[in-house]
Amino acid sequence: MEARHLRYAVALAEHGHFGRAAGELGIAQPPLSKQIADLEREVGARLFDRTRQGVFPTAAGEAFLARARRALDEIAAAAVDAGRAARGETGRLRLGFVASALLDPLPGVLSRFGRDRPDVRLELHEMATGRSSTALVAGELDVAITLGPPRGAGAEHLVSVPIGRDHVIAVMSTVHPYAGRPSVSVGQLRRQLLIVSAGEDEPAVVAGLRTLLGADSSALGGAAVARDVHTIIGLAASGVGVGLGPSRMRGVPRPGTWFCEVTPRTPLPDLVLSFGARDNSPVLRAFLDTIRENCPDVGAALDHRLRPHT
Q: Which residues does the UniProt record annotate as the domain HTH lysR-type (predicted)?
């Protein structure tokens, strides 16, 4: 029994006439009559009464047609679901990310992806770079956003593209003597109580600050320790000291704070997007398309890195 037999039976029941049903189906009447007869032999029951007034389903026919219609609906739905899955409109995306990615560009990317793909299930995990890199290589994540590219065993099987560059800036209370200045110097920072983050991803950031302040600087050794940039900003707003963090934290404005540049400029590790080189899932492709749309300067680099694997 094939799907066409179900369509033939349903069309015949709706039209009550072999000729009209055959016309709708786009076949001749004799083949339709033969297919219905073959169907009845396979089912083992007469499905239609043929009378001068028309063709009518028997009791067996009514029972058969009820399930046939449901089966045809399921077949149509299966085709729709398959098409949506192939376009990356359904499925699951597991994303690991460092907290600073929530400052930029992740909010815009997630908002756009959720709007365009509302039926994709997003599994979001805030993770340090080392943990997310390991999870990505192990197949426990589909995408990771890390500080710097993943390193270690298996990293050679990943595609990694920078999606954001950053540098150190300072934040302070608006009543601080340095508030209102466009920048502060390293010498000025050495005389202040500093506030820095001590998250799992911070060794690279702290290394950058040591480069900025000097390895023997006591300012960093006596710095107040914050969990993340939100705490840095909060402590700075309270007048505790001068907070140091990524320039992305300008995107978290808070009353009573002043942001300014630090000279000389000290770069921080890039935000890097990584995924499996052999991962061809439609949902991943859809997410990468959203990255291209939301981060236009990333598109060319992403296409260049993907070309050898396509």
A: 1-58
Beta bridge partners of 273: 145, 161
Q: Give kind and range of the element (H or E) at residue 271.
A: strand 267-276
On whether the CB atoms of residues 179 and 259 are closer than 8 A, the answer is: no
Q: Is the peptide bond before 269 cis (omega within 30 degrees of 0)?
A: no
Rg from Cα positions in the chain: 32
Provide the CATH number for the domain around residue 244. Answer: 3.40.190.10
Write out the two tokens for 197.
């983050």
User: Do 102 and 122 meet the contact criterion of CB atoms below 8 Å apart?
Assistant: no
Pairing between β-strand 120-126 and β-strand 91-97 as defined by DSSP bridges: parallel
Count of domains observed in the chain: 3
Judged against a pLDDT cut of 50, whether residue 214 lies above it is answered with yes
Summarised one tens digit per residue, pLDDT across range 278-306 is 888 999 999 999 998 888 778 777 776 66
Range of the domain at 23: 3-86
Return the number of other C-beta atoms located less than 10 Å from residue 261's C-beta: 16
11/160 same-domain check: no
Residues 140 and 287 grouped into a single domain: yes
